[in-house]
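Example for tutorial group B:
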């Protein structure tokens, strides 16, 4: 008996209806990106591991999918190495490539590799799948799409403002109520310096980034477990529990980290950004969240995270500024900032809240029924004219029973069915049936095209 086929955990098949909805998200995001002057690029699904490793922190490196070298790669490994039974060491010898973990690091590689072809500042968008060897769970997949938008080669905080505007415009169009949380890694560095643990900035940020997920008590314990002194953890408590307006939080944190120059620089950048934002009426709530850390090592300035207000799910958009990401590829001192829209989580939010409009799932607009060869000859020229007018139209491929054809049209969610029998041909018309209301009317070919091409 043949084994039942399956797909890897954390991956999914998508039906035509699901693809239509996904494309609705992609098209909406793409239109907004293009309106702000961003240009598309694509990069390979796999990159050299030397490009990917060490860019996401120790936890991120563990989640990279590695690809075995072609051929009998294991035969080139000596017996002593095999005897060690060390999978990490062995993998490094038999794998030189990996699936991309995100789109930002490949983008940095692209910029360095094509620097002589690019005009800076360079604004690009990229909509492609990425892969992470994560534990699958609700809202978290091993293969998922990201919709990235980045600008590189400019230090201006106007770029951060544009990203907030893009977030607001995208989610307003998708009708998702959201909150944008913003912080600054310089402020986090200032906090670490103030509590006397500057060299432990990564450990501190990775821990406090989990505050919403595991709570204050467990964050404190994780900090202590990582070797942060109890005195430093105690000094951190007022910072983790700041409240008030964005301006009040900035005032409070500025006073706490007043001895840190890098921290004060972060506060200054946030004041500038919030001043820019105050000049616009946004639908999205924007708030300063000093516990927002995002564990990725390469962020150096503003960091962003977007939450859906009406659904319990992880962040649906995130990103930040990276001042020297290209430096690791031999092109130092090129600042960039970007965000990534998580298309799969956005899809899940819109499905749960029933936000997809009817046109997002519409496929064929009109189906011509098939009653036989004479009717086919009558319908085919009209069908061609409809398609030429931009109307999605098709004909049922055989003269099947009417019930079968109508059921097929209904399951495919066709908006209209064109019925053509002997009477319609004699009158030179088509009977058009609205599949939603059941209404029918006799129309000439010209009237049919005019109605359906609206």
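The residue assignment follows.
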């Amino acid at each position: 008996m043949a084994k039942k086929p399956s797909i890897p955990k954390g991956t999914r098949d998508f039906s035509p209806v699901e693809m239509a909805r996904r494309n609705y998200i992609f098209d909406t995001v793409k239109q907004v990106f293009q309106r702000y002057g961003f240009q598309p690029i694509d990069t390979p699904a796999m990159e050299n591991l030397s490009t990917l490793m060490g860019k996401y922190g120790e936890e991120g490196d563990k989640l990279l999918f590695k690809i075995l070298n072609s051929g009998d790669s294991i035969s080139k490994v000596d017996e002593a190495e095999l005897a060690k039974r060390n999978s990490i060491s062995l993998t490094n010898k038999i794998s030189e490539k990996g699936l991309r973990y995100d789109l930002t690091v490949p983008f940095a590689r692209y910029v360095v590799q094509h620097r002589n072809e690019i005009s800076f500042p360079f604004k690009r968008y990229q909509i492609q799948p990425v892969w992470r060897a994560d534990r699958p769970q609700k809202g978290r997949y091993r293969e998922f799409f990201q919709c990235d938008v980045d600008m590189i080669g400019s230090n201006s905080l106007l770029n951060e403002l544009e990203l907030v505007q893009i977030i607001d415009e995208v989610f307003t169009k998708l009708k998702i109520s959201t909150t944008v949380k913003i912080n600054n890694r310089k402020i986090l560095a200032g906090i670490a310096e103030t509590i006397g643990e500057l060299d432990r900035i990564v450990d501190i940020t990775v821990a406090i980034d989990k505050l919403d997920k595991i709570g204050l008590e467990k964050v404190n314990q994780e900090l202590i477990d990582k070797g942060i002194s109890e005195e430093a953890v105690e000094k951190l408590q007022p910072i983790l529990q700041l409240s008030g307006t964005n301006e009040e939080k900035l005032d409070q944190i500025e006073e706490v980290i007043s001895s840190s120059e890098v921290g004060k620089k972060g506060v200054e950048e946030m004041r500038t950004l919030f001043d820019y934002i105050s000049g616009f009426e946004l639908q999205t709530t924007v708030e300063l969240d000093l516990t927002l850390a995002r564990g990725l090592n390469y962020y150096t300035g503003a960091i962003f995270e977007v939450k859906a207000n009406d659904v319990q799910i992880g962040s649906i958009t995130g990103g930040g500024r990276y001042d020297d990401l290209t430096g690791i590829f031999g092109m130092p001192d090129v600042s960039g900032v970007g965000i990534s829209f998580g298309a799969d989580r956005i899809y899940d939010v819109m499905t749960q809240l029933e936000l997809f409009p009817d046109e997002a799932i519409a496929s064929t607009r009109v189906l011509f029924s098939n009653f036989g060869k004479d009717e086919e000859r009558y319908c085919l020229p009209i069908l061609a004219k409809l398609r030429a007018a931009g109307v999605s139209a098709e004909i049922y491929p055989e003269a099947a029973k009417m019930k079968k054809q109508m059921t097929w049209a209904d399951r495919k969610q066709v908006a209209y069915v064109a019925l053509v029998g002997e009477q319609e041909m004699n009158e030179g018309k088509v009977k058009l049936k609205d599949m939603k209301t059941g209404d029918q009317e006799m129309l000439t070919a010209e009237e049919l095209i005019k109605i359906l091409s609206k």
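The CA atoms of residues 157 and 272 lie 8 Å apart. Compare this with the pattern of hydrophobic and polar residues in the output above.
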